[in-house]
Write a structure and sequence with these properties.
Distance between the termini: 24 Å
Strand content: 5-15%
Structural class: alpha/beta
Helix content: 40-55%
Radius of gyration: 20 Å
Strand order of the largest sheet: 3-2-1-4-5-7-6
Number of helices: 18
Number of strands: 7
Low-confidence stretches: none
Order of helices and strands: HEHEHHHHHHHHHHHHHEHEHEEHE
Shape: globular
CATH architecture of the largest domain: 3-Layer(aba) Sandwich
Mean pLDDT: 94
């Protein structure tokens, strides 16, 4: 069964240069453990790599987009040869003047096809490999062109300096949430602008209602209820670097664990549907499904769940995000899949990738 979205969206370029999903809650949701076999949507590779820190037997990263698999393979090479500090420079998490030199060291570990792919992007690499996706360029446009029209650098800095949630709330309402912020940010978050510059219009097929208003409220929560100083995703959007906090796979305490297990990562240019249809697909202990159900009909979503049931075993967990389209285990499969409602609610409350409306954890019974 081919993936529905493959027929609708363009998968010929890098959409995501980073994983915009919180690995901290993902690892807890899947209970990643030594000896297990896990399937992960590849995206840019960060969360598949994060799983390696727990010592699984294997992590299989799949993606429809060959360019996303290229991102994973470049990261894999970087973990093999770079130090932790050099990795942060290479990503763009901190300043550097030697990223092309770092790339040359990583290049030796790439396959010929991957070398050809990345050799054509050396100018992009100079800015940091975490900046080169379509979505990251969309954030760059906001940060460089629009944010200065709304707030001064001092205001932006203060937003990340306030540790007390009540003070952040007051600052947001009294200073940050001005007319320009409301007007420009909602325009920037409109379905048309996101489809044109950030995502693909085809990915909104099943979305109803205002995209901008929902994202506006979720960002507000991320800037007030949650602490932006602890949020690497918001820091990247507003500051262009990981100035204070790092995502899981880039933290020093996880870096060497990932390196030690780097050979346990397997990459495939393949849809989840095609992987599960393979006669040699191993039983899977956990699925990181990103937000792929967002882009398929309810009928195809239910069909894929049934295939997952056939490829898993009692205790196999599924973790996935809802962005604008609500997807959760249908009542018809309640005897085979258990919704872990309390765990889902607890983890979603901590989710640092604040764009999502929900985070679902489910378990095969």
């Amino acid at each position: 069964m081919p993936s529905e979205v493959l027929k609708k969206a363009d998968f010929s370029f890098i959409r995501y240069a980073q994983c915009w999903e919180d690995a901290d809650i993902l690892l807890e949701a899947l209970n990643v453990r030594p000896g297990g076999i896990y399937l992960s949507i590849a995206s840019a590779g960060d969360n598949a790599l994060a799983m390696l820190s727990k010592g699984p037997e294997k992590v299989i990263a799949v993606d429809l987009n060959p360019a996303q698999i290229a991102c994973v393979e470049l990261r894999t090479s970087a973990y093999r040869v770079l130090s932790h500090s050099e990795m942060l420079e290479f990503m763009g998490s901190k300043p550097s003047r030697r990223r092309q030199t770092l790339y040359k060291r990583c290049r030796k570990f790439l396959s010929p096809d991957m070398r050809k792919f990345w050799d054509q992007k050396v100018n992009d690499i100079e800015h940091g490999i975490g900046h080169i996706g379509k979505l990251e360029k969309y954030f760059f446009l906001f940060r460089r062109r629009l944010l200065p029209l709304i707030h001064t650098p001092e205001h932006v800095k203060r937003l990340f300096d306030l540790a007390d949630s009540h003070k952040r709330e007051h600052f947001y309402e009294s200073t940050w949430n001005n007319f320009r912020w409301k007007t420009i940010f909602k325009m920037f978050l409109s379905r048309f602008v996101i489809g044109r510059f950030g995502r693909d219009p085809a990915l909104f097929q099943y979305v109803k209602g205002s995209v901008a208003e929902r994202l506006f409220q979720r960002i507000r929560r991320g800037l007030t209820v949650l602490n932006p100083a602890e949020n690497p995703y918001l820091q990247w959007i507003f500051l262009g670097e990981h100035k204070i906090a790092l995502p899981y796979a880039l933290r020093a305490e996880n870096f060497h664990k990932i390196r030690e297990n780097i050979d346990r990562l397997e990459c495939r240019v393949q849809s989840v549907e095609d992987f599960l249809a393979s006669p040699v697909a191993p039983p899977i202990d956990g699925f990181n499904l990103s937000d792929i159900f967002e882009y398929m009909s309810a009928e195809n979503y239910h069909r894929l769940l049934r295939k997952i049931i056939d490829s898993g075993h009692p205790g196999t967990r599924l973790a996935y995000w809802n962005l604008f389209v609500s997807r959760c285990r249908p009542a018809s499969l309640s005897g085979r899949i258990v919704s872990m409602t309390e765990l889902s609610r607890k983890l979603h409350a901590r989710d640092k990738t604040v764009f999502y409306s929900d985070f679902l954890v489910e378990e095969l019974s």
